[in-house]
Amino acid sequence: MRRLLEEELRELDFDVESVGSAEEALALLAHRPAELLLVDWTLPGMSGLELTRLIRARPDGDVPVILVVTGRREPDDLGAVLDAGASDYLAKPVDPEQLQRRLLIARRHAERTQRARADRRALEEAERAFEQLVDAAPDAILVHRRGEVVYANRALLRFLDRATESVVGARLASLVLPDDHGLLGELPLEDDATLRLLHRDGTVRTIEVAAVAMRFRGEPSVALLMRDLTQRRATQSRLMAADRLASVGTLAAAIAHELNNPLAYVLSNIGLSREELERAPTDARLRLVRAQLDEAAEGGRRMRDILRDLRTFTVREEDVEGPRAADLQGVLRSSIHLCWNAIRHQGTLERRFGEVPPVDITESRMGQVFLNLLMNAAEALEGGGEIEVRTETDAEGWALVTVRDTGKGIAPEDMAQIFEPFFSRKAEGTGLGLAICHDIVLAAGGELAAESTPGRGSTFTVRLPPAERRPARPAVEVAPPRREEKSKARVLVIDDEELVGRSLARALMKHEVEVLQAGAAAIERLTGTAAPELDIILCDVMMPGTSGIDVYRAVLAHDPALAKRFVFMTGGAFGSQARRFLDASERPVLDKPFDLGQVRELVEEYARR
């Protein structure tokens, strides 16, 4: 029977091998896989049904099996054949034509099976290659299916400092800050969407995320491609700080010039006044001394204004909490003052200031934008021309600031690149200035546009949405003093600078003034058993050792009523901690250098209270 079937199969162009038992068949298949099996049901030892079941249990067990049935005509026979996993069956005696038809069907099935197997292997290899590639990617990647995480690469596990088992199998929502759960229902997300993930230590990490629908391991899934914004924002912050320092560095000579001029006549007038006072006083000499001191005071005010304008650029973005509302006209004036020396030697400047709303941005960042635009305009004039600075409100209520110059202009081929990082036509330019300005304005929800005509000048327009004004820290405002009700106040001055304390004591000589130079001594004086009764405490914020903040907190804990009489003094050079403290304390602040008239009125007002 085997020889007969072999001849018929070879005539049909099959490559045939035959054996006489199931055990021999298994041994042959172990080293020579077959594409089709023709198996007798009744065999010595293991039956054909048992052999079929064993083959079907193998990894490559999808090979077609045709069972040859001898003397079986019962209805249950077909069920037994199919239960064993056979593809078909033939009854003996075997009809050659029927065998040929069954083999043709089996061959087609085998070909389909082989193709499916090859496709499956290719898919498995592609998935393995994909996972290897994704696992080595520097960006964090996560795949989830209906909200359940099914894959996380090494970068994500490092980013969250979590083990694979704590991420894979978890709900995606468990990795995301609860406030951002609403975003998960909107997947796929846009490219610029952000999510906040929870680190293992409980801190929050902000990421930029894009979602891609895909099939993963044979099922519909969503891949989240994530990029850490923390490092990028830190880099951007450093670049902005570097550009701000470069801008101020460019202005250093001009600022020194602006300070040295008033400093020269301040010192000169003070020296001349001392000389006049050492001589016998006459009315003429006293008038001369008064005039010289007036000029010295004017020079001091001029230097104070320059330093206050410069302070605009020292406030860091991260030091400002809560809503912000920059006064664009005030920032523009400060920026113009700082680069005035560079402007006036190149051309003229015209201001056309119309009303504009406050905008939601820190004044230091806005000042960086204006300073860059003004310095670029001054350089473009090349020794002649005009700069016009205009502020206005457009029809939608947005603030518009325009800086126009009549300088050399920008070449058309350069216009498309002027806001790109590191693009510069200047010999010593970094190419960061306009790129950072553009980023600052965009981050505030605004627009920065440029127009230019070579030989006729350039126009840069900043457009920003309005913001609610931030409640200002209590200003030092006092009612006009009623001269007939002047009171003698009890004043304590706490300042580590001896000359500051001495000058305040002289200015307030009509009052009872005590001066302390150390914070620790002030705490001992104000919280001791013999604490003085005071109307007002003028306390410096920054002092070595025990600061003014420490003094205030100690007094607040000891005597809250006395703490309400604090007025802080500052030169403006304090960090984010001191800034937050001053905002939270809601105590008035005097900026150094003082307006002595303002200080006297403030002291008298506290005395009347």
Walk me through what this model shows:
It is built from 21 helices and 18 strands. The strands form four sheets. A five-stranded antiparallel beta sheet has the order 5-4-8-7-6. Strands 9-10-11-13-12 form a five-stranded mixed beta sheet. A five-stranded parallel beta sheet has the order 15-14-16-17-18. It has four domains: 2-119, Rossmann fold, CATH 3.40.50; 133-232, Beta-Lactamase, CATH 3.30.450.20; 324-471, Histidine kinase-like ATPase, C-terminal domain (Heat Shock Protein 90, 2-Layer Sandwich), CATH 3.30.565; 483-608, Response regulator (Rossmann fold). The radius of gyration is 43 Å and the shape is elongated. Residues 317-323, 469-475 and 477-485 have low confidence and may be disordered. By secondary structure, it is an alpha/beta fold.
**Class from helix and strand fractions:** alpha/beta
Strand content bin: 15-25%
- Number of DSSP helical runs: 21
Can you give the mean pLDDT? 79
Number of strands: 18
Shape: elongated
How far apart are the termini?
124 Å
In brief:
With 609 residues, the protein is of the alpha/beta class. It is built from 21 helices and 18 strands. It has helices at 2-11, 22-31, 48-56, 75-84, 96-136, 154-160, 164-167, 181-184, 229-278, 283-311, 328-338, 340-344, 363-381, 412-415, 433-443, 498-507, 519-527, 548-558, 560-563, 576-585, 596-608; strands at 37-40, 65-69, 88-91, 140-145, 148-152, 193-198, 204-216, 219-228, 348-353, 386-393, 399-405, 447-453, 457-464, 490-494, 512-516, 536-540, 566-570, 589-591.
